[in-house]
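User: Modeling request: complex.
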Amino acid sequence: QVQLQQSGPELVKPGALVKISCKASGYTFTSYDINWVKQRPGQGLEWIGWIYPGDGSTKYNEKFKGKATLTADKSSSTAYMQLSSLTSENSAVYFCARGGPLGAGDFDYWGQGTTLTV
Amino acid sequence: QIVLSQSPAILSASPGEKVTMTCRASSSVSYMHWYQQKPGSSPKPWIYATSNLASGVPARFSGSGSGTSYSLTISRVEAEDAATYYCQQWSSNPLTFGAGTKLELK
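Assistant: Request completed. Predicted assembly structure:
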């Protein structure tokens, strides 16, 4: 079965950087894009960007350019999101989510979320 | 960017009642997707491509709409349906979500 297993909670100091992982299993990692979504406490969902592990191509929400860097390691079927120059505004739960098979722009599987506290 | 406005923000319903929540887009979109989220959990795919129920979603749920107006309807609300429902579009970059409709059971 498809699973996206994210890394554990992070507590970091302002100005630092952090790298969150999302390990995929149960499907061909290189055939589906991985998206990243931010959710601040008690608030809604915000799309950060996606990466297509097949060729490493990425697309970012303009708001997160320079803040987030998305990478993928095909050998371990793991996607990563690095966040830099952290401030309290970056404290949130971050989810990875797989792009749906129909290419309709939906997400069909989600990770459990990683809580980042700055 | 396309702004998605969900209404109402909070929906209070009694078990067995029919309810509808709406999602209005600032520009026309091709599809609308919906997710259900309960506190402390990740969002679950609920309705994709406007009207298709995700795996495991009860048949009392339905989705419809086109252009700038979309809706999610529950024919007879049950206690387990209490959650926040988010709409989402990706007809235009960036992908955006609505602010959510919180469904509360009386």
